[in-house]
Design a protein that fits this description.
Rossmann fold; 4-stranded parallel sheet; 12 strands; single chain; binds ligand SAJ
């Protein structure tokens, strides 16, 4: 069995490596020559615990190699990004480009799978592109959509143990795709059609976005009502059928902050709640920036001097170094733009340096600051003690006080 993975990013590379570890001969393809070189040298181009050792092993054993072009294989996997354009419309041009690249290498009996998060109908569109160019392959290859659902930081475990949805163009495609994933997936494989699988992936992330929006909306209500939102949610969650998530300074990352738009732009009239959840979560970041700006202005008026401000966290979620779509980064940028010559200390303990922000040590910043703004709930911040002599804006529940 030989498999070709198109895209060596956060999902494509780990999946390719796990497949290679399970006896499949794997070629990983990327358009970036640096990624290809690094990968062939056994080096990861992003952080994922445990993965680099596995990469070194499969490269050394000769079961995996990276290249700029695909090769004839039994199965092809499209695992490239699907970003969105300015108006939040999904951009499937990478999926289409990768599909067009593999078309000349497809042969009778092959399996073609899309894993990239995609708007509903993408697999059908790619099938049409394939058969327009290679009509002789109609009915002779199997086509499926099989989304991933792993959490960065726990990818090796989740790739193997999570259940997967296998959406096939027909029953035979479901069967052949399931046979492939069964080689390394210990979770259950759930058969369906392509469109349901496409919407299922978008639904999972939209569901989480909506649940976080509920928590974020509660936090704004509680602020106005002078109620501790952390205590409120803890108490409400004592109900056997209530499970409210935690508020924060908005929703970031490359999945939850993006995927709901793939439903909202395609079904604008129908997706009221999904669109509103996006608005609520975006508004929460704006609200946190305004709160910070007001706290600085109030301090200036009451103390007749500018405060030292510590902005605690830049990453989009706790204990990672990933700043993509980060609400914390957005808030820090807004505050700096407003007070460009103020004494603002920026803290991100998971980064050594940043090309735009000058970073400070978290203990020093906490000690020096008059106003402390907690944006990301990094574990190290929880080692700090509450200080009554500081203005503390705790947007992510470090101290869980009002
Ligand atoms: N967040 C909150 N409150 C919470 C939980 C999260 O504000 O109670 C925020 C985080 O701080 C972060 C954002 O939500 O800014 C997203 O973080 P996350 O940990 O919920 O999710 P991601 O983006 O790292 O990964 C998600 C996962 N999807 C779901 O949990 C439904 C993951 O399983 C997917 O594979 C991934 O998206 C993806 O690639 O689609």
């Amino acid at each position: 069995m030989k498999a070709c993975f198109m895209g060596l990013g956060y999902i494509g590379l780990p999946t390719a490596i796990i497949a290679a570890k399970h006896g499949i001969q794997v070629i990983g393809v990327d358009i970036n020559p640096e990624v290809v070189d690094k990968t062939n040298n056994g080096c990861l181009h992003f952080i994922e615990p445990g993965l680099e050792d596995m990469l070194k092993e499969v490269v050394r054993d000769g079961v995996f190699h990276a290249a700029l072009k695909p090769e004839h294989s039994d199965a092809f996997f499209i695992v490239v990004p699907t970003p969105f354009c300015g108006n939040h419309e999904p951009d499937i041009s990478y999926v289409e480009a990768a599909t067009r690249t593999v078309i000349p290498f497809l042969e009778e009996g092959n399996l073609f799978v899309i894993e990239s998060t995609s708007p509903v109908g993408t697999t059908d569109k790619m099938a049409k592109i394939i058969f327009d160019e290679r009509p002789e392959l109609k009915g002779k290859i199997k086509i499926a959509y099989c989304p991933e659902r792993v959490l960065p930081g726990n990818v090796i475990y989740e790739l193997v143990h999570n259940d997967r949805v296998i959406g096939g163009m027909d029953e035979a495609s479901v069967k052949i795709a399931s046979d492939f994933y069964r080689i390394f997936v210990q979770g259950e494989l759930h058969p369906t059609n392509c469109k349901t699988a496409e919407l299922c992936k978008l639904t999972e992330n939209s569901s989480r976005d909506s649940q976080i929006a509920f928590a974020n909306e509660l936090s704004i209500i509680c602020d106005k009502a002078d109620i501790n939102v952390w205590e409120l949610i803890k108490l409400a969650n004592k109900h056997p059928r209530v499970n409210i998530l935690q508020p924060g300074c908005g929703v970031g990352g490359h999945c939850i902050a993006i995927d709901p738009y793939f439903i909202a732009t395609e079904f604008p009239a129908e997706s009221k709640m999904i669109s509103t959840a996006r608005e609520v979560n975006n508004y929460k970041s704006f609200w946190c920036a305004e709160k910070t700006i007001n706290a600085i202005l109030e301090f200036e008026i009451s103390h007749k001097r500018k405060p030292v401000v510590a902005m605690m966290g830049l990453a989009f979620k706790p204990d990672i170094d990933d700043l993509r779509e980060s609400p914390a980064k957005y808030i820090v940028t807004k505050v700096i733009q407003k007070f460009n010559n103020a004494d603002i200390l920026i803290v991100e303990p998971n980064l050594k340096e940043h090309k735009i922000f000058k970073l400070s040590d978290y203990r020093e910043a906490y000690c020096r600051a008059d106003i402390v703004v907690f944006l990301t709930a990094h574990s190290v911040f929880k080692t700090l003690s509450w200080r009554d002599d500081k203005v503390i804006l705790d947007f992510c529940g470090i101290f869980r006080k009002k």
